[in-house]
Amino acid sequence: MNFRAIALPIGRLLILISLLMILPAIADIFAKNPDWQIFLISALVLSTAGVLTTFAFHGHRPPGNFREAIIFVNAAWFVFSLAGAVPLYASELNISFTDAFFETASGLTTTGSTVLTGLDQMPPGILLWRALLQWVGGIGVIAIGVWLLPGLRVGGSQLFALETSETTHKPYGHVSPFLFRLLGLYGGLSLVCAALYLLCGMTLFEAIIHAMTTVSTGGFSTSDQSFGQFPGVTVYWVAILFMLTSSVPFLYLIRSIERRRASFDVQIVLLLSIVLVAAFSVFYFERYIVHDTPFHMFTLAVFNVASVISTTGYAANDYLQFGPAVIAIFFMLTFFGGCAGSTSGGFKMFRIAILHSHFRGLLKRMVRPHRVVETTYQGRAVSNPILEGVFVFAVVYAAAFAGFSMIYLALGLDLETSLSASITALANVGPGVGDTIGPSGTFQTLPDAAKWVLAIEMILGRLEILGGILLLTPDFWCD
Fold first, then answer.
1. How much is the average pLDDT of 138-152?
2. Which residues of 165-195 are buried (b: 16+ CB within 10 A; e: fewer)?
3. How far apart are CA 35 and CA 116, in angstroms?
4. Dihedral in degrees, nearest 10, Cα atoms 355, 358, 360, 361
5. Is 378 helix (H, G, I), strand (E, B) or coil?
6. How many CB atoms are closer than 10 A to CB 276?
7. What does the alpha-carbon distance between residue 196 and residue 123 come to, in Å, rounded to a whole number?
8. At what angle do helices 97-108 and 124-139 cross, to 10 degrees?
9. Has residue 151 got a pLDDT over 60?
10. Count helices and strands in the chain by DSSP H and E runs
């Protein structure tokens, strides 16, 4: 095992974390909040650990392999989560390390579940740190690591494929050109989103925070009311636009910009179709309960649907008060997620499209057993390995959802909370359903054991489950 190929980039990753901590320290200095010292001390300690690790493992090393890439992917998420939790734990929040780790893991995986309350009076450094965690997590800690750490010779396309679930050929000859384009697009979307939020009446700080957590489809906000703090409807439509844009494959966006034209993509059509159907359904039930203008109710319906299906997790109001039918709609949306190659989590639209095509073919063959019907995607036949991978993932996804639900039941959570917590962590959505972890609640009251399991499930969900399960197989560790 080539541990140098794993430890060296981990050391450089610690240096990156420490540099990011300077930004919230500066924010707290301007706000005259004493937590700036915590961020600077944490940055100093982590940068020292990163430098020592880098020097200790620096030197000639043989090329890594896919097994070492898998170990690095898992280690990177846990190391970043542990390191990012340090300033939260040492700050004036007075929270346990369990809560600090949960909040950090939720941020990095862009899940958006939180244990914190009183966000409206929280120091700017903490709010900025939470947003930075989601912004970095949105683009992918591993994708950034491959771009910044050329010393990791494991084939960047393998890591990027693991993170985005892409099953197609490499978009460019090397990983670096694509990552440059990815970072440029990601940063550009964030800047435009922040500018539009600013025009909608947000303060500069609010616009920056919400732009980072919108484009990353993370959902951390500056208020306990989330988007409910902002009046008017324009700000909601800006959020809808960027949540759905960030749920589209970034490779598709890059190619569309380079070619100056958009092409048909079945994932995007399926995503928008589900959003429209679900939004009109929610609006239909909402109008019997809420007394407001139809356009405002429809805006909130689209916003909440887009927030859940994109796995962002913002809330404009407590949509669970609209009746059992609406609760069922949002619970189902939690499973879907956005498109492959986006910042969204969830099951992903391309898998739904492939399963739908295969199911239609199965029904046709049942009527005419000798008929040959291929499973297709975008008009092309789906190869057996891809089809097998989709089926395996579907089974593992369902098994993980059921398995973690049983764990939460065993830890004392009620059935509704257990089921909701399991899928919202696995799909990296954020809020669940029910009074405890719904859009108007937090995860604070859950037992510590449940929070640790939830944090692990969030990371597994971000790694498409299989990336973490591989570490548990004996064959993985055998030469």
1. 50
2. bbbeeebeeebeebbebbeebbeebbebbbe
3. 17
4. 180
5. coil
6. 12
7. 24
8. 50
9. no
10. 21, 2
| Rounded (10°) CA dihedral 35, 37, 41, 43 | 70
Q: Which two tokens stand for residue 311?
A: 């796995």
Residue 63 pLDDT > 80: no
Report yes or no: 49 and 15 within 8 Å, Cβ to Cβ: no
Give the Cα separation of 218 and 215 in Å (integer): 8
Q: What gap in Å lies between CA 154 and CA 152, rounded to an integer? A: 6
State which H helix or E strand residue 380 sits in.
strand 380-381
Tell the residue number behind the tokens 């995860």, with chain if given.
Answer: 443
Q: Which helix (H) or strand (E) holds 377?
A: strand 376-377
Indicate the angle between helix axes 266-286 and 234-246, nearest 10 degrees: 150
Q: What is the pLDDT of residues 230-280, one digit of tens each?
A: 988 999 999 999 999 999 988 888 888 988 888 888 999 999 999 999 999
The mean-pLDDT minimum among 4-13, 144-153, 220-229 falls in 144-153
Dist CA 158 CA 170 (whole Å): 10
Give me the amino acid identity at 114.
T
Which tokens is 148 given? Answer: 């910044």
Instruction: Give pTM, 2 decimals.
Output: 0.90
Structure tokens at 161: 């494929």
Q: How confident is the model over 36-55, as pLDDT tens digits? A: 999 999 999 999 999 998 88
* Token pair 């958009």 in the structure block, residue: 262
HSE of 55 in the Cβ direction (CA atoms, 13 Å)?
5
Contact 389, 355 (CB under 8 A): no
Q: Report the alpha-carbon distance of residue 454 to residue 102 in Å, rounded.
A: 8
